[in-house]
Amino acid sequence: MLLIISSSHILHKIFTSLKRIVMTQNIDLNEIDKFAKLATQWWDPNGQCKPLHIINPLRVDYIKQQSGDLNGKKVLDVGCGGGILSESLAKLAANVTAIDLAEESLAVAKLHAEQNGLDINYLNQTVEQHVEQYPAHYDVITCMEMLEHVPDPFSIINACAKLLKPNGQLYLSTINRNNKAKLMLIYGAEYIARLVPKGTHDFDRFIRPSELMDWVEHAHLTVKDIIGMEYHLLSNQFRLGRNVDVNYILMAEKNESD
């Protein structure tokens, strides 16, 4: 009997270890290294992260429109990078936790938050690891400009769904997969305007809205809204609109019964 119990215990430990290995495999080390090299650029509004600084106010405004007052709400920023969005949410009096795998970016994010007197809980872990500790913990989760940089986007969405409280809201932003997006973001932004470093985007990883909505529904979330971030050449500005041909944000909600 003791031998059977011991064997069962060992098998359980092996299964748990294998499960953790699988859960942490949704990582592209090349992508992490790519963004780690941007560490010194995160907070330069005229540097290689300039597009993020331009669209950040739009993202924040949209979140405020959909979620209302964030004061005291528990918010998770997945793939936070240098903390551009995380800090904006913290300034709205949200209780912000932010996770990323690029240690160099997190170091910059922590230092910048300290310099600005902001209390943000920055963690170096995957969202799949985070959900093991904090299921049904967050009121709002943001995952912006990240899904197109991981091998398995659905794994990210599914983990986010489990991290949400009932009626919690998830914000996902990514890039549509079509020729217009390829022309504007790869040839235009990377090779002609050089707004971002060459190789930032991989067209094959762009995500059509129909694909994203399907993943969200399979994660037992309800799609509530989808909106585009349109670039206007004459004014050199981004605006929120219903054209989702290139950049877009999807907002989903967890059902109260889940």
UniProtKB/TrEMBL annotation:
Gene3D superfamilies listed in its UniProt record: Vaccinia Virus protein VP39
Keywords tagged on the record: Methyltransferase, S-adenosyl-L-methionine, Transferase, Ubiquinone biosynthesis
InterPro entries named among the record's database cross-references: SAM-dependent_MTases_sf, UbiG_MeTrfase
A GO molecular function assigned to this protein is: polyprenyldihydroxybenzoate methyltransferase activity
User: SUPFAM superfamilies, alphabetically?
Assistant: S-adenosyl-L-methionine-dependent methyltransferases
Superkingdom of the source?
Answer: Bacteria
One biological-process term from Gene Ontology?
A: methylation
Q: Where does S-adenosyl-L-methionine bind?
A: R59, G79, D100, M144
Which one Pfam family would you cite for this protein?
Methyltransf_23
The reply on keyword Transmembrane helix is no
Its pathway is: Cofactor biosynthesis; ubiquinone biosynthesis
This enzyme's EC code(s): 2.1.1.222, 2.1.1.64
So what does this thing catalyse? a 3-demethylubiquinol + S-adenosyl-L-methionine = a ubiquinol + S-adenosyl-L-homocysteine + H(+); a 3-(all-trans-polyprenyl)benzene-1,2-diol + S-adenosyl-L-methionine = a 2-methoxy-6-(all-trans-polyprenyl)phenol + S-adenosyl-L-homocysteine + H(+)
| UniProt similarity note | Belongs to the methyltransferase superfamily. UbiG/COQ3 family.
Q: What does this protein do?
A: O-methyltransferase that catalyzes the 2 O-methylation steps in the ubiquinone biosynthetic pathway.
> What name appears for this protein in its UniProt entry?
Ubiquinone biosynthesis O-methyltransferase
The organism's lineage?
A: Bacteria, Pseudomonadati, Pseudomonadota, Gammaproteobacteria, Orbales
